[in-house]
Each structure stands twice: as structure tokens, then as C-alpha cells.
Amino acid sequence: MQEITALLSIGSALFIGAISPGPSFVMVAKTAVTSGRINGLCTALGMGLGGFVFAALSLLGLNGLLLAVPALYLFLKIAGGLYLAYLGLKIWHGAKQALAMPTDGNVSTDSSYLNSAITGATTQLSNPKTAIVYASVFATFLPALPSVSFSSAIVLLVFAIEAGWYSLFALALSSEAPRKQYLRYKTAMDRVAGGVMMVLGLKLATAAGR
């Protein structure tokens, strides 16, 4: 019973974090609208995989390592922030490029699906602060001596929350109406999305030195 209560508490806390707008939110939205449903879902799965990795590393003590070696944490935050800023710059530069999308919403190949999944995972993994957040939630709600099966359930729960939420988001935005609106206002929307990504990335990178 204690483990079930802990799972529900952890799941609730992480779900609130997952639905909060951030770089992952922007990337899934952009991919779903521009590249179609399957690419959006692949990006969502990548987000889930990134969350899975961070959750597993947090349970294995990554947060302790990052706190014990500030230089490593600083490097990862700067590198992650610059990566997000780079993604934002790419979106910004492509704002005026024409985009043709068929009505079925799926325009891609297997390689682009893989690229979407990788982009989702790297976007999620670009912020090492996520590992600290996971570790803080785990420290608050985990039993004193969690079993291997319970720890496994935790990382699977993280994957389900991250991938599930972003999959629903991708499905909603890959429908016909949002895509038509995007095509109509593509330049402005890409400028906003790219600008948000750059600001978030630079904020992460510059905050690392404080």
C-alpha cells in the first residue's frame, strides 16, 4: 500500500511538471504541426525516453554526482542551454521557408521518424536540471529502501507520463485545423517558437554561472 501511495504521489508531481510549457512543449508542437502525426508521436516517444534515462540515472545517484561535482553540472547546463538555443535558431531561420504538407499529415520516411525521436530525446536530455527535479521528487516520496521492482515501476511511470502527455499533445496539433492555421501564419509562429527556444536555452546557459 505504501508503494502504491508513493507511485501515485510521484506520478502526480511529475505529471504537473510534464504539462508545464517548456522546450519539450515547443519542440513537440512544432514537429506535430509541420511534419505530421507520426513524426509528432516519435518526438513524444523521444521525450519519454529522455525522461526514462534521467529517472534511471537519478535513482542510480546522478543527482548526487552533479551536486558533488559542480563543474560537471555547470558544463552540462551550459551545453544543454546552447543546444536548445541552436534548435531555436534553426526554427527561426526556417520561418520563411515554404512548407508543403499533404492532407494525411504524414510526409516522412523511416529515417525522419528516427530523427524526430532522437530530437525529442536530446531536447529532453539537454536540461540536466530535470534529473535534479526527478531526484527531489523521488527523495520526497520514495520509501526508505525501494525494491528493484518498485524502482523499475518508477522509471516506466516516468516514461508513460512524458510520452503519454506529449503523444496526446502531438495528436491534437497534427489534426487538420491546427495545421491549416500554422500554414497561414507560419512565419510569425516559427519566429515565436524559435524565439522561445532561444530564450529558454540562453536562460539555462547563463543561469549556470550564477
TrEMBL record:
Cellular-component GO terms for this entry: plasma membrane
Signal peptide span: none
InterPro entries: LeuE-type (IPR001123)
Keyword presence, Transmembrane: yes
Membrane topology listed for this record: Multi-pass membrane protein
One function term, GO molecular function aspect: amino acid transmembrane transporter activity
Transmembrane domains' residue ranges: 6-29, 41-61, 67-89, 154-174
Pfam families on file: LysE
Superkingdom classification of source: Bacteria
Localization per record: Cell membrane
Keywords: Cell membrane, Membrane, Transmembrane, Transmembrane helix
Record PANTHER family: ARGININE EXPORTER PROTEIN ARGO, ARGININE EXPORTER PROTEIN ARGO-RELATED
Name recorded for this polypeptide: LysE family translocator
Organism for this UniProt entry: Aquitalea aquatica
